[in-house]
Amino acid sequence: MGLGDKIKNAAEEATGKVKEKTGEATGDRDLQAEGLADQSNANLKQAGEKVKDAAKDVKDSFKGH
Question: Which domain holds residue 28?
Answer without folding.
Answer: 3-63
